[in-house]
Amino acid sequence: MELFLFHFRLWGTTLEQVFLGTRAFGTIEPRNLEVILSTDFEDWSLGARRKVMFPYFGDGIFTQEGGDWKRSRDLLRPQFLFRQYEDLDVFRQSMEDLLSVLPSDGVVDLQPYFFRLTLDVTTAFLFGESVNSLKHDVQGGQADFAESFNVAQDYIAKRMRLQDLYWLVGGRKFRKACDTVHEFADQIIKKNLSRDRTTDRENHQYVFLDSLAENCPDPKELRSQIINILVAGRDTTACLISWTFFLLLRHPSVLEELKAEISSVLQGRTDFSRSDLKKTTFLPNVLKEVLRLYPSVPVNSRMATKTTILPVGGGSDLQSPVLVPKGAAVAYSVYSMHRRPDLYGMDAELFRPGRWTENMPLYDDPVNAKWGYLPFNGGPRICLGMDFGLTEAAFAVVRLIQRYPNMRLPATEKVELVGVEKQTMTLVMSSTNGCRVELSP
């Protein structure tokens, strides 16, 4: 991502380049993103995304366009109403499982645990019961699923980077990983749709799968939608929680301020609800700042379905419209846009949650204010699970700080400038060296 940042600093907020022999554009200009993602939404498509992802994702909300996509969105939107998780019960058991497997003290890399936590939470929400990857040593079909889940996504990430040349990446290992994930999903869907739901109804437990299955009778479509949500639900939130602790431990004054707020608002209670979390003010700003510096999907792209224009970025002053021919791709890097000093101040590359209560340059222009911060995308395709993910992350952060109030950065860990650390890009961006913490109750 630092290479993207370097290019935009060198050439401006909108640039043109030749990538693998194909003319393409890049932008981190809010006015252009407003046009691409909202105003001229119909002029832009996902390009090769469906072909790239189809062997794994099938026909689900992330690969569909047009009428199919609108139907999927209408189908899935009601499932993410916050009343389904207002009491936080869907997060609570998996969180307790995490706390039970973590050591009481010592140095541990939390990042792999966070990926297992969010897998357990997401499967509990989707299926009514978790795969319990934290509770048990993953073995048998679960081990195959977990490994194949990661292998397939690594292949998809490589295929995405090649766009129309995606077919160069594939082969038997990729197909086997996709088949394993599909088979596991089919089995768990069949098992959960056939089990007795009397207990769920008596406990008023909401089950995503039951509600979705009522309106989605095709088993293949049901499986595709579930895999789409499962991937998004696990990876993006796991990365958010990981980067949050990565940054908090390197900024002890911020961690102390957050601990003080949690103690003041919740008074040591662990049975708090989403409404209680909403009473915090610093915690949401911490998460906003983490997502500013480390958006889960740091770069995305669209393809022009007809010859069109971007409103700004051309000419000698870089303020004139830019002609984009039909079929050309435009990549947009929210990672780079979120680091613009003219939007976030001269300290834009520093982790400072307090900036969200200040009068940042971002707020000087209404277009910048709306389109200059896009950790969950924007327009008609804005993330449906935004509140769910933020609530899950907030819950995890609070419970870990309550359990380990004296956690600190291990003495062996390097403290580098924000953004200089090694990053791993798959479908999301994670820390290559993990999130190592010295736990202390």
TrEMBL record:
Gene3D superfamilies: Cytochrome P450. It comes from the Eukaryota. CDD domains: CYP52 (cd11063). Its cofactor is heme. InterPro entries: Cyt_P450 (IPR001128), Cyt_P450_CS (IPR017972), Cyt_P450_E_CYP52_ascomycetes (IPR002974), Cyt_P450_E_CYP52_fungi (IPR047146), Cyt_P450_E_grp-II (IPR002402), Cyt_P450_sf (IPR036396). Keywords: Heme, Iron, Metal-binding, Monooxygenase, Oxidoreductase. SUPFAM superfamilies: Cytochrome P450. Belongs to the cytochrome P450 family. This is Cytochrome P450 alkane hydroxylase. It comes from Lithohypha guttulata.
